[in-house]
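Database export, one record per block. Field names are fixed; values are copied verbatim from the stored entry.
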Amino acid sequence: MYKVRKLSKTFSKSKVLKDISLDIAKGERVVIIGPSGSGKSTFLRCLNGLETYQGKIFFEDMDISKNEFKKIRHKVGMVFQSFNLFENLTVLENITLAPLTRKMDTPENIYKRAREFLQQIHLEDKENVYPSSLSGGQKQRVAILRTLMMDPDIILFDEPTSALDAEMIDEVLNLMMDVARKGMTMIVVTHELNFAKEFATRVLFMADGKILEDDTPLEIFNHPKTERLKAFLGKIKH
């Protein structure tokens, strides 16, 4: 699905991504972990065409320069840590705006599907309220539904629980697990290591702008190979 070749990114004179190359296949659930400032979110933004970069990124064999990415943007969903809901629109309006604008189906079918999604996450009574009246966990679940309404081939999550209180995190992680069970390809930047162990089919450890380890959750968390990953996991455990 994704092929990344010698991807680099520089801000001012600081190189935040350094010659990253990897492939991501359809159906994988890839979790990216690592210390703050390691380039995780920047890497995700490059995959979503939100940053210029050096190197090559291919999505389904199409070279996605910033202009070319417009052709496939509807195939790549992204969920941000800050929700990014429209405060002047109701919950139902937030999750139906894009599919209605793109005329993906009849309005009747779009509204029906939106209400079915809301019912699945027990927010059917919130369709006519505005985001300001929702909890953080509810806002993030609505943001995920908004992405699912576009029928993407892959969803990118940039630290989707970092802005949430502890008791709200499970609400969002449980929804992500439900989406994963349906076979959605997903790439997730997160600090929730217990979630990563259960959710991921593959874990990338990033530090200093590079992918230092790329393996199964079992190997990453139980048999780290680099001293950098050992130190990172040691700090988390303590």
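Remark 1: The chain has eight helices and ten strands.
Remark 2: The beta strands are 2-11, 14-24, 29-33, 54-59, 62-63, 76-79, 154-158, 185-189, 202-207, 210-215.
End of record.
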